[in-house]
Amino acid sequence: MDRGFEILDISGDVGLRIRAADLEELFEYGAIGLYSLITPLNGVKAVETAEIEVEGEGLEGLFVGWLNELIFRFDTYGFIGREVEVESVSDRMVAARVGGEEFDPERHERGLLLKAATYHDLKIEKDDGGWTAVVIFDI
Amino acid sequence: MRLLRSNLSREEVLPRMRDLVEVLYAEIPSGVGSKGKLRLTRQDEERLLRKGARWAVEEGYGDAEDLERTESGGAIEGADPSLISDRAFERGRAQQGTLGSGNHFLEIQYVAEIYDEAAAAAMGLFPGQMTVMIHTGSRGFGHQVCTDYIEVMERAARRYGISLPDKELACAPINSPEAQDYLAAMKAAANYAWANRQCIMHWTREALMKVLRTSPKELGLTLVYDVAHNIAKIEEHAVNGRKQRLVVHRKGATRAFPPGHPELPGFYRDLGQPVLIPGDMGRASFVLVGTEQAMEETFGSTCHGAGRVMSRHQAIKKAKGRAIWREMEDAGILVRSAGKRTLAEEMSEAYKDISNVVDVVHRAGISKKVAKLRPMGVVKG
Questions:
Q1: The domains spanning B1-66+75-100+136-223 and B109-130+227-381 adopt the same CATH topology
Q2: pTM for this one?
Q3: CB atoms within 10 A of CB B240
Q4: Do the chains contact at B32 and A103, CB–CB below 8 Å?
């Protein structure tokens, strides 16, 4: 698989496999993958920018925490992202800028309602070619 | 899970079904990115979390009688809003009184078959009768409580030296402060869900009265029962002949208490608890009743639905080029859905045949069949 994400078929739920050159990109593709499960991204415009910082424990906690932050912002404020720029990923924090807009059921096609990103069968691995992550969402 | 009975027959409702489904779809917010009609303050939400369906009734959404027919009277004691994060409060604020998406639904149904006449009569059910089933829960509020507490439990599991095969199984001993806090938060989420179904029931009543031009008395839309489908409860059960207090986790399961159980309201004490098992949107749902055998063998529990045979993605592939709504309409079921993808994911073929599943629990004796309900109109998220 090239850099990017693919959707994993899991009975009852849905997952993403993400492949990236570095950690920042891994978090970016994770976010784009997540948003594309909610609605086709070609219908989303980047009209506002959200500055997002998420704290977490360890890489796994940080990755799941990051995705859950994006789910929270969608489910609470209707914010759907399209352009994601992760500025830094440290041991305890991820800092990013996400360009997107407020979800409008009149204009945006409705996809999946994600409840949460989970730790179930979570994998984050580094090899010579870069980083791979597998994450499953609760639907 | 909530089932409503009525005084009306299928024939009386059929000519108005199209309007009915449209009005229900318009009046009850559903689907990805939808917002509820209620505008709650933080104080409202705190009261709602403590009082559950009681809050809804006090606000004018339904009658006190509805509460008697709801598990735990529509509110578990011990819910503590101070143990709920600001984020959960925020996420829950606009979602009270919304159906959600996925397998959640509101269905207009009719009683297609009765297996136990006495039990059906005790629940107010008769052949050919219109019923309404509401399947929704604690919405984003409950998901946020879960997300918050998985982080707490993950740290707790390490603290108590519990090694886990999967981090998602994060847990703590029930008497630990972490677990006690979680229980009080989970109760708040259960109460949120009972309030949610109570509000939706109220708007359903209003919609039916408006479309069918009936009085509340003619319509007679009252609650058969409301029971949680995913919850942990502290109950007394016999273990090796000795009574013990246990935490019973019902996930993918629902409660099925037998006749005589002290937690049942008076009018169901001799009968046993009504058990509500939804099927897929094209086939059927079932009403059963709890049994003593369930107490002995499955901690007073039975199955809670059909279960999938196809993943969501497989179902979407299978539905490509087909109009699922049209297929359902040809089969006599009107459907309205916020997302067309939801209809593909939720189509009948994606699920096991609920009749077979229910026959298994019936023959196993952990609940007994009372009535089969068939859908006439379906609202999906």
A1: yes
A2: 0.97
A3: 5
A4: yes
